Amino acid sequence: MGLFGRLLVVFLAVGIVPVGVTGAWFLRTTGRAEENARFLHEQLTALAASTVEDTVGRLNRGLSFVEDLERLGSKAPEKEFAILQRAASATPPFILLSTLSLDGKERVRLADVAVFKSPELVDRSGEDLVKRAQSTGRLVLDEPAIIEGRPALVFAYPLLDGRLLYGAFDLAPLWKRLGALKPGRAGRVVVLGADGRPLKGSAEGFLPPTWRPPVRLGEASGWLADIPAPSGRMVGAYSGATSGDWRVMSLQPRAEALSVGTEFAGRAAAFMGLLVGLVAILAAWFAARLTDPIGALLAGAERAADNDLSTPVPELAWGELKRLAVAFNTMIGRLREVQDLHIERTLEEKSRVDALVRTIPDGIVLAGFDGRITFTNASAAEMLGGTEGTELSVHRALPAGPLRDLALAMLGRKREAGNAEFELRATAGTEPRQVAARGIVVRAERREVGILLILRDVTYEKEVERTKQNILETVTHDLRSPLASISGMAELMLMAGQATGDNALGEKHRKRATVITHAARTLSHLVDDILDVSKFESGMMTLDYKPAPLFPVLEAVHGLLSVQAAKEEVQLRLEAAPDLPPLEMDASQVQRVVQNLISNALKFTPSKGTVSVCAKRDHDGVLVQVRDTGAGIPADKVGKLFQKFFQVEETKVNAKARGTGLGLTVCRMVVETHGGRIWVESEFGKGSVFQFWLPEKQAKRDAKPAKPA
What we know:
With about 700 residues, the protein is of the alpha+beta class.
């Protein structure tokens, strides 16, 4: 059964079954007029009482915001107003909501301007309703009143901190619904208060306000067959409302209630048949009006799910369904615009990426985890001797050696990324090229889809680097002899003058000879550093590893540089225990590291500053720290300190002497050759801490210790 059939059955059940059951029951009892009248009135009073209960229940549910007021407290009136606004929006029958302070005066007020003309806050401390709520501590409902022609139920609700919630609840909808429950042409349903008199607005024009039932309505419900009233004798039934002292009474003139003609049954049956037919027609029409637009929307949603955004749904419905169809078409139109724009941008971006990938000098190779190469650009095809974009296996396309090993390791999920360098000949008889490769695993939407290899021809860079290195080594090597001669001659001149005791050179020439000696020594140290760096890089530097204590090395450097520190008014402290474990090391090279670090610290530490040298056992080795109170190093320069010839521009102005930019590089190479590691911690403007760690045994040089805390 389709949606139309299901809705039609539901509507028929909801509409026809109650009508048919009520009509059959009513027709069966038409012969007993009084019983019929009693049954009718009892049903009406029960329905009216239920209607009253619904209204009171809605009032109670609407008061659920009282908890928000109690949690808020009395210190935020503007937040109280926001809570009252939300409550009035959720429950429209509230035509007045206000909070009263402990003295009964309104703090915040929210009122229907059509009923309460004045926006001014009101002092309600003298109202009996307020006093009763304050004394009892419970919700108090007043008798309904007529406010600006509208019936309303006024109430007061005490809060935990002594404040009161004061409000008025519109009863006009309730009276209207009760007015629709008329028994016969002249009957009426009225609501009686605790004193038995009609509530205001409930029986206007039907009963005088002073009228009371002939008997006290003590039972929950009942039937009165003869009731005196100003308009004549009446019959009626009453029922109590469980939420209060109100009574609902259904009244009808006795003559009308008990007049049953013989033709009533036929007329009633005809009316019931007509009513059933009308309900069936309306149910079919209403079901069609609902299912047709819903079916159109469903078809449109299915087309959109299939990526067909070209056909809008018909906007033939009514009310919210028509608005839904309009909104759906608007959404589909915007989705189509976004889709077109996305496709256009994707194609444009793809063309750019394709142009970039195919023309960059670096080779790019993509391969799936099945071992098939899915893409190669022109540079990669030229390097590997293949065809651009041709699908080949990794074994056939990549040459044997480091590149293929790297690719196979990543395809086997043994590595996430890696680097490789190798020689490559494009064709026989050509010069070999040096190629550097970088491989990574490619992921898309949280899954691995393959590997990416980036090939870079570094032949020219290697040649340039090798040429620079050769030139540098040659120049520095050739400089050693002249520098030694210059330094020796200058020192001989100074020594000759001192030995003879004469002043043959003169004070001016003696100072110049001293400057020559110092400059020659500085250049000689630079040449030595350059040559040592070259030896380290080429693997030709040999170190003499012997077990030796570290403390004498630190003590010797401390004694050597103490004079320089005192001259510069810097406090040089040695904080190391003499019982440090012996290290397997080249003591002269380690002393060189310590001397370079302390000299650097003295160079950048101002007068009255401090340089501390600490050493302690750590991770099966010894940790040495050189701490200064100098200028510090910017955070973006810390990672470059140990590179060749790198100097921090920001601290040059604070240096007491110019450096060569190779001292820290030599330190790094010596420490790493010993199997240790070196690093720096610094804050610009607050000093630095240079640290290095050396293992006790050279057998553990591959073990990289964690950075000490």
